[in-house]
Specification:
ligase; single chain; three-stranded antiparallel beta sheet
Length: 524
């Protein structure tokens, strides 16, 4: 019996471990006006404070909402809560639909894209200035791309079965890093199965300077004919400076050491920008990364942080608490941007990544082959006969996808055995259909819809978004649920005011304290 089979047997014998799995979602989406143009209005007060509301905040732009669920025990509860949050936004801000697509709506001139504002507290200003730095470094347009972040955790006791180590924290760290390595090897599969951003409006390309690299399929719409996710391709969240970081997923210590160097090593182009313009801060520092979260990746090890804590420091001190999958496109056919079926497949996929053996990446621990596969599938995943690289050998995407889905099947069955239904196997079977027929993938379906309906990408997405918005508004919320969200919004505004009133040091001193919280360079 293989090690993975032994682990599955142990998990099957302890169903409380599977029931204790938690998953959560952070879903981004632009507020737009009736014509699908980026909303120029401030964050709606009825939604509470973007700084302190735990369910509704903003990401890069003032117009880019981020809706956040609690960690929940199953896919149905997860998507239901995310849909509730969407319905609350629709009820309290009905005139500005959420753009239900990863690639942006029509954008104004870059200077007119508003950067998120979190109030005058030191904490709020730190978040705002960090985003100003992103604007200077990468431009505002790239920061308006949206996605779904999927958070996943196993209970502490599960790592006693799945990882070796001298302490619970060490076992947890080793186990989650093994999950991340297996995820990295197979993340291309998620791009093929769920990538839903093969097209984009011309205005985005004109802003970003990529017009010549894509195929024009109608006056305002461009695409890569075989692409699955422009968002995760080099048109989206990519940065050549960061590509040289060579982060290692073999162990947490090396990973955090390399992140530490990135957030403490100056970069000449950013030094030339400086940290201040006209007496105001424009970025937090001139290093390769201003802060840890600036590193763009398809998955992150995570630990909850408090005010003025640094993610890298708390990872070293308290270990990994959960992982955050960051590569999922918004599903344009789902009112909340993700379907429960997708959540069920992700749970089986991530459990597979956690339980299966996960060899270390070769020195220096950099997973270049896996990253190349991911990039290739994002750009050309539906190309007939596409070949990927596996341990230096060419393998067809179709064959590898079939094999991977076969290996995930025992985990879908394991989850179904303790959920009382066949939902995870049904989710897996839906992915098998996509592996057999590329035309069944979301990226192909979207391009087919544009062709068959004779619509521009912008107009099709606006119609989808409006339809979802009408559904979410009509769906409404039970009175007690609506009252609870209203109360949370009011409380968050009061909490922001209290934080602002409690500040006792200058913002410059606060920034210095924040940088000092990083601590010394780990010896690695």
């Amino acid at each position: 019996m293989s090690l993975a089979s032994e682990r599955r047997v142990h998990l099957a014998a302890q169903p409380e471990l599977l029931r204790a799995i938690r998953r959560g979602i952070e879903k981004e989406g632009l507020r737009v006006d009736a014509s699908g143009n980026l909303a120029a209005t401030p964050h709606p007060p009825a939604l509470g404070s973007a700084l302190t509301n735990p369910r509704i905040t903003t990401d890069y732009s003032e117009s880019l909402l981020e809706l956040i669920t609690r960690p929940l025990p199953d896919a149905d509860a997860l998507v239901a809560e995310l849909t509730d949050i969407h319905s609350f936004v629709a009820l309290r801000n009905p005139g500005e639909p959420i753009w239900n697509q990863s690639m942006p709506a029509h954008l104004p001139p870059e200077a007119d894209i508003p950067v998120a504002w979190y109030g005058t507290s030191n904490t709020g200003m730190l978040k705002h200035v960090y985003r100003l730095g992103l604007a200077w470094r990468y431009g505002k347009v790239m920061q308006c791309i949206a996605g779904v972040h999927y958070n996943f955790s196993l209970p502490e006791a599960a790592w006693d079965l799945l990882a070796d180590g001298d302490s619970p924290q060490e076992r947890r760290n080793i186990g989650y890093m093994a999950l991340i390595r297996n995820f990295t090897r197979h993340a291309w599969l998620l791009m093929y199965l769920f990538g839903a951003s093969p097209a984009v409006s011309r205005s985005f390309l004109q802003h970003a300077g990529y017009e010549a690299r894509l195929t024009q399929i109608s006056p305002d719409t461009y695409c890569m004919p075989w692409a699955t996710s422009l968002r995760m391709s080099d048109l989206g969240y990519k940065n050549p400076i960061q590509s040289d970081l060579q982060l290692c997923y073999n162990d947490l210590g090396t990973f955090t050491a390399r992140i530490h160097r990135a957030v403490t090593t100056p970069w000449p182009a950013y030094e030339a920008m400086g940290t201040h313009r006209d007496g105001r801060r424009i970025q937090l520092n001139t290093n390769i990364l201003q802060i840890e979260n600036e590193y763009y990746s398809s998955i992150r090890p995570k630990q909850i942080t408090g005010r003025c804590e640094r993610p890298n420091t708390v990872l070293r001190q308290r270990g990994i608490q959960y992982i955050e999958v960051r590569c999922m496109d918004i599903d344009p056919w789902a009112p909340a941007g993700i379907a429960a079926e997708t959540s069920r497949f992700l749970d089986a996929f991530l459990l597979y990544c956690a339980v299966e053996e996960s060899p270390l990446f070769p020195p220096p621990g950099f997973c270049q082959e896996s990253q190349d596969n991911f990039a290739l599938v994002s750009r050309e995943g539906r190309r007939p006969g596409l070949l990927l690289q596996r341990e230096g050998c060419a393998v067809s995407l179709r064959d590898w996808a079939d094999e991977a889905l076969d290996r995930i099947e025992p985990y879908a069955r394991l989850l179904d055995a303790h959920s009382g239904d066949g939902g995870h196997m049904a989710a897996l079977d839906a992915q098998r259909a996509k592996a057999r027929d590329p035309q069944a993938t979301p990226s192909a379906r979207l391009l087919a819809a544009l062709r068959d309906e004779g619509l521009e990408f912008h107009d099709w997405t606006l119609a989808q978004s409006r339809g979802h918005w009408d559904f979410l508004h009509a769906r409404g919320l039970p009175p007690d649920t609506l009252a609870a969200y209203d109360a949370q919004a009011r409380e968050s505004i009061a909490e922001q005011a209290a934080i602002e009133a409690a500040d006792t040091i200058s913002f410059e001193d606060y920034v210095a304290r924040f940088h000092a919280a990083l601590g010394p360079d780990p010896v690695r």
